[in-house]
Structures are given as C-alpha cells and as structure tokens.
C-alpha cells in the first residue's frame, strides 16, 4: 500500500521520462534473476543451462558437489535431463531451479533428484509468464507470454519449502502477497532470501517480502539499469553510466568496481561477478580469489552458486566453471562438454550495441537457429575490446560479435601496439640490415662466382639422389640416435614413448580431468578448430598433450566417424610424428591423448620469442619433418595427406626432434591424390624457405610479402645465399644451406607434376645432414 502511494507520489512530482527504468537482464543470471544458465544454491546446489541444439533443451551438472547429495543422483556429476521440457529461461533458488516452458510460457520448477516433477503449485500451473525469478525459498513471476514483444504484467509469487520427509513442496505465498504489489505492472523481477524486487512498467524499482526492509531500498529507485542481480540479502544493478548500485549486505559490496561497464551480473554467496562490456571478461568483487577467474576467454552469460561460478564462453559456447576460493575442489562442479545457448531467445530485432547470434557459425549442418522458433533471436551485447594477448581483428556487426585474434597471429601494424610487438621503424631497420648484408656478400665477386659454381654442381647431384631415394626401402625411423651414431640401427622406437602400433590406450575421463587440473586454462597449450589442447601429467608422471574436442566438433562428427578416425590415427606411429597415445570417449566428450612436445612449435622458434635454432639443428629438423611427411605419404593406402603443412604444425620434442602434428583425418578420396600430395610438397617447400631465411611464409613488412615470391627468383638466379638467415652465425661452409634452397626451389615449382615426392626430399635432406656442417 505504502509503496504504491510512494510510486504514485513520485509520478506526480518527477517527469515521467525519469521514471523509466530499463531492465534488460537477458544474459544476467545470478541468484534470483533469469538467464540461459542458472545456479541453485545450498547443499544440493546444481547448475542448469539451455543447450545450443536449437531445441532449447536443458543440461544440468554439479549434483555431487557435496557428500550429502541424495543417493538417487546419478554417479556422474552431470547429465542431460531428458525429462526437463524445453525452456525459454532459467532461474535458480535454494536446491531447486525454475524455468519458463519454451512452448507454453508456463512456469516449471524442479529439484535435481526428480527433474520430471513440476513443483509449481496448482493455481499457477496454467498461467503464462514472461519473467521468472527464484529466491531462496520462493519464486516470483510476471504474468504474460514469454515470446510476445514487451509483455508486461502483474506478479505471482509462491513458496517452495522442505516437507517432513525432506522433499520439496510448494504453495501459494502468503508472505509475498502484498495488495500494493499485486496491482502493479512489472517489466522484470529478481528474488533473494525473503524478498523480491521488480522493475515497474511506469518507472521505479520496488522491493517487497518480509526481508525487503533489510535492503535499505527506500522507495522506488529512479535509474536505468543495464544489468540487475540479487544475492541472498542484496541487490545490485549497473546503471547506464557504468555505475554499480547495490543495496543490502554491506560486506559484499566493499571495494566494488566503479566506472566499469558490465553487461551481466551474477551473485554468489559472498561475491558478485560481472561480465565486462568491453572485452567480455569476468570480474568479481566481494570474497573470491581472482587468480581462479578464467583470463583467456570472454563470456556470454554467467551464473553463480554459493562458491562456484559457471559461464558460457564466447569463443566456443563451452561451459567453464571456477570456484570463488582455492579451498573448494576444482572438480566440485565439472561441467559437461555441451554447447550452450549464449543468451535467451527473444522476439523482435536486436537493439543498438547488440548483435543477433548467428547459429551458422557453429558449423552444424542442420542448425540454423538456437531457438525453437525461427522468428526468435538471441541478442547479445557487442564487445568492443579484447583481453590481453589478443587484438581486435574485426568489429561487431549486426550478426557477429567483434573478433579477437591471438597476438601470435598479428601480421601488420594494425595490431603491433596492442600486442606490444616490434614497431614499424624497427622492422624497417631489420630489412635494411638484410639488404646491406646482401650488398656486402654480392659485392665480393669471387664469393658470388663460388656460389654459382656450387649450385651448378649441386643440381645433377640432386637428380641422381632422386633415383636413389625412390629405390630406397622405407625405414621407419631415422631419429636423433641414428644421426649421432649411425651404426646403432635400432628400427624399434623406445617403447616408453611409442606403444605398440595400432593400440591406443583408453583413458578414463576422470583420469584426464585430474591430469589437466580439470581442463583449466593454465594447462592450455593452444586452441585449434578441433578444440583446446591441454598439457597433462598422467598419474605415472608421464607428460602428454590432451586434445579436447569442443562441442561444435562433437556435434559435427558422430561417434562412428570418431571411431573411424581413431582407427586410422592409432595406426600412425613414427618417431617424426606426434603419435596418438590413447583416447577417451565418455559422457559425450571426445579426447585424444598425444605425446607431449616439450619444445613447442617450429614457428615459435623461427618467428616467435623462443630460442633461435642453429644451422645443424635446422637441417636436422628439416630432414626429420620430411621423414614424418614421407611416412604419411608412403605408408598408408590411400596415403594420408596432411593438407596443412606449416611451421606451426611442426613440433619439437624434448630431444629437439621434429614431429609432424595436426594432420587432417580425412584421407584423400583418390579424386586428385597426386595433386593433394604435391600440395603437401609445396607447403613443405615453403617450410624449408622459412627455415633457411627465418622469414614468415607471408609477411607484409617485406616486399614482396610472400617468402616464395621473394626467394624463388633469387634461387633461380643462383643467388640463394641472399635468402639465408643472417641472424644466426653462418656456417663456414654454406653449401648445405644452398642445397637446402635448391630443394625448396624444386618443391615450390609451379607445375605440381614437376615437384619431387616427399621421399625424394627426405632422402636428399638425409644426405645433407649426413654430410654434416662445418660451423
Ligand atoms: C509443451 O511441452 C511439454 C513438454 O515437452 C509437453 O508436455 C506439452 O504437451 C507441450 N504443450 C503444448 C501445448 O505443446
Ligand atoms: C514426501 O511427501 C510428499 C507429500 O508431502 C509425497 O508426495 C512424497 O511422495 C513423499 N516422498 C517420499 C519419498 O516419501
Ligand atoms: C529473512 O532473512 C533471514 C536471514 O537474515 C532468514 O533467516 C529468513 O529465513 C529470511 N526470511 C525469509 C522469508 O526467507
Ligand atoms: C532511462 O532511459 C530512458 C530511455 O530509455 C531515458 O529517457 C531516461 O532519461 C533514462 N533515465 C535515467 C535516469 O537515466
Ligand atoms: C563512482 O565514481 C564517480 C566519479 O568517478 C562518483 O561520482 C560516484 O559517486 C562513484 N560511485 C560509487 C558507488 O562509489
Ligand atoms: C588463489 O588461488 C591460487 C590458485 O589456487 C592460490 O595459489 C592462491 O594462494 C590463492 N590466493 C588466496 C589469497 O587464497
Ligand atoms: C571457500 O569455499 C568453501 C566451499 O567450497 C567454503 O566452505 C569456505 O567458507 C570458503 N572460504 C572463504 C574464505 O570464502
Ligand atoms: C551467418 O554465418 C554464415 C556462415 O558464417 C554466413 O554465411 C551468413 O551470411 C551469416 N548470416 C547472417 C545473417 O549474417
Ligand atoms: C583494450 O584492452 C587492452 C588490454 O586488454 C588495453 O590495454 C586497452 O587500453 C583497451 N582499450 C580500450 C579502448 O579500452
Ligand atoms: C592487417 O592485416 C589484416 C589481415 O591479417 C587485414 O585485414 C588488415 O587490413 C591489415 N591492416 C593494415 C593496416 O594493413
């Protein structure tokens, strides 16, 4: 009664515009607000999220977080609840969750042990709702149809309580029925412990319920909020100006950020977290350990339970969870590897500063929308900046968020500053030094003549070796051992590194989770189209690399394809290949376990910050990489075509041996097999040029930017010495390097039929390495 009087009083004295309170909490999901991902609190707390299957199905996890969890919960910590109907939005209370049904807009509340039983009391079961907010032990919902544009309505509240036999039950609320509130029309609502707050259509934020007086919200609040969330005894909202306004529980709000814009908020028991508007990174305040917050990825939506926060990553829509403090076990809330919806499906078009999520970007054949109806869209807030280590490579459009690219891929001046790379003048100086050195070399005509002579002699040698090479029996492995001691011919690789061919060990998911610290980002070695790659230490101390398929990959390939790929992969064994050790296919996850490559990629040694490689190592690496490719091309019928030969896919193991990684699992479909093989040869030629010159395959700081366009004419003019990398000491005898240049020149011949085979190249390189290098 009082509140309504206060409101109408305000309407008279304040211009109506000022009373407008915008509440767009589409991806906000804390205790008490609604979103695509939500957490229930308490000892039987769990998380649920709307999946990205296009059916708006619900996936839940985290039931085993406490030993007191009911025994009827499955032994696994996550499950896709087939008996929860499709949902439009979710909101979590203590030990229960509620949602709005996707087809009828009716409310539905459930607990983890009996998700198929709807807890909504009878009087409210058939009503449609546009908004729902579960508090500690009550739910308030706004009447209306979820999928009609701008549906505002009156509010209904009901209580959820524990029965004598410790199951939950519900009834129409008397505690929350307030005549003044019952007559107001609301736009949005959040709920906490014993209170709810709603945004009134005509303006103002109003709180009610037995504990609402503790919040210290005196009358309606005249502000527009971009995000709103409620904790147990507090409410926070982010105003348009990025100002955080909170009411209630004072310790929670100590040291809260001021001036940062957030697009979404989530409240835990003793902390709040928000998604930053600019880079979509998560920041928290209150009691939490900031080192546990994922740094590498931005998020589309987050939800917090007592001590855990989970979010939908913006890069891949994969769920990631982290604890508020280091005392909680990292495996408390292991999320399933499901692709989840980045936001709520809404009718109408997206507003300014928002983009409509494009489901085609997930590469799933049948998936054109993540929503149950084609007229619905998921509108999310555009990012405007990237996290550290990434640069903004394209801005937000109507259908796509801004794109952040890793600084390791920074190619030109547009990203130098942000990535802290070499500035253009320095690069020009480097180029100029190159030129000056060239002038010095070719200034000496005697040396020039010598070089020409060497090349003249080399070509016939190469052709004779070619014949020899093709006759040569395939030998499984010429590794470091053989190079150092030629008489020690052991065709069998050490068993500790490479297990028997064709046998891939089956790993348990739990084993790999432990080995990767629960797939935490500090274990990430990199990310590719397949998913993330993690460094892992198995229980026996062995270091391995674990490739974890992302949800898009999983949706894209069925398990039969995966098994066929595994069959091929497990037959591939060679000491110049990153060999598959095993796999795991459990609970919808696909994981591949590979040998760990201690020294990273060839790319990082040639072009990145990692130690420069000396010439004898470079020659050896070239030869070993060629051996690896030769193996793929020669050992299999049909041959395995790599299709992506580049320095980033040549890794270096603990012994500095080169290993080929990341070959396409697609075997060639005879159509143009020779062409496919020749394309691997061409790309290997480019790798040789990079090894020789230290230049990237394509670098806009040089003219011409392509290493092939630059080097090939010089090689053809017998001026190959000009392309040799001057940043490491030249060997006394450059002949082996000139031979390398010639081999590269043959491999990048325009006409694919004129290119040598990988076997030719491997045996030529083997000769160069055996002849040795005088330093
Ligand atoms: C809505 O979905 C639920 C659960 O899938 C189903 O039981 C119900 O019949 C559907 N209602 C309508 C009107 O389609
Ligand atoms: C618990 O009690 C409710 C009624 O309060 C009843 O419907 C339910 O079946 C009971 N559950 C068990 C496991 O006894
Ligand atoms: C109000 O808050 C107190 C704790 O401050 C809590 O014990 C009580 O259960 C709350 N009331 C309701 C109705 O939730
Ligand atoms: C709230 O937003 C409306 C427009 O949506 C604007 O007219 C009004 O001035 C804003 N109020 C405040 C307090 O910023
Ligand atoms: C945030 O900072 C602005 C000035 O930068 C100040 O006016 C405002 O009072 C601050 N808000 C809070 C909640 O500290
Ligand atoms: C935060 O967590 C990290 C990682 O678990 C831990 O090393 C650090 O000691 C924790 N900091 C605090 C203040 O608890
Ligand atoms: C850390 O989390 C655990 C639950 O995982 C909780 O019991 C404990 O109180 C928390 N500690 C702090 C300092 O918040
Ligand atoms: C969605 O993405 C696909 C593939 O990335 C693209 O072809 C299509 O044009 C996009 N749709 C819109 C509406 O931008
Ligand atoms: C963008 O983020 C980077 C680092 O993450 C920061 O240095 C830079 O100042 C930010 N730019 C803007 C415009 O906020
Ligand atoms: C930098 O390179 C990107 C592609 O990598 C290109 O889109 C962009 O236009 C380039 N910018 C400049 C200033 O050359």
Automatic annotation (TrEMBL):
Enzyme class, first EC level, given as a word: transferase
Keywords assigned by UniProt, alphabetized: ATP-binding, Disulfide bond, Glycoprotein, Kinase, Membrane, Nucleotide-binding, Receptor, Serine/threonine-protein kinase, Signal, Transferase, Transmembrane, Transmembrane helix
Coiled-coil stretches noted in the UniProt entry, renumbered to this chain: none
UniProt cross-references to InterPro entries, sorted A to Z: Kinase-like_dom_sf, Prot_kinase_dom, Protein_kinase_ATP_BS, RCC1/BLIP-II, Ser-Thr/Tyr_kinase_cat_dom, TNFR/NGFR_Cys_rich_reg
Domain Protein kinase, residue spans: 519-765
The keyword Disulfide bond is assigned to this record: yes
Subcellular location: Membrane
Statement: the UniProt record of this protein carries the keyword Transmembrane: yes
UniProt cross-references to PROSITE patterns, sorted A to Z: PROTEIN_KINASE_ATP, PROTEIN_KINASE_DOM, TNFR_NGFR_2
Cysteine-cysteine disulfides: 386-404
Signal peptide: 1-30
Recorded GO CC terms: membrane
Membrane-spanning segments: 438-459
One family name in Pfam for this protein: PK_Tyr_Ser-Thr
TNFR-Cys repeat intervals: 349-404
Residues engaged in binding ATP: 547
Sequence ranges assigned to domain TNFR-Cys in this UniProt record: 349-404
Name of this chain's protein: non-specific serine/threonine protein kinase
Protein topology in the membrane: Single-pass type I membrane protein
E.C. number(s) listed in UniProt: 2.7.11.1
GO molecular function: ATP binding; protein homodimerization activity; protein serine/threonine kinase activity
Catalysed transformations (reactions): L-seryl-[protein] + ATP = O-phospho-L-seryl-[protein] + ADP + H(+); L-threonyl-[protein] + ATP = O-phospho-L-threonyl-[protein] + ADP + H(+)
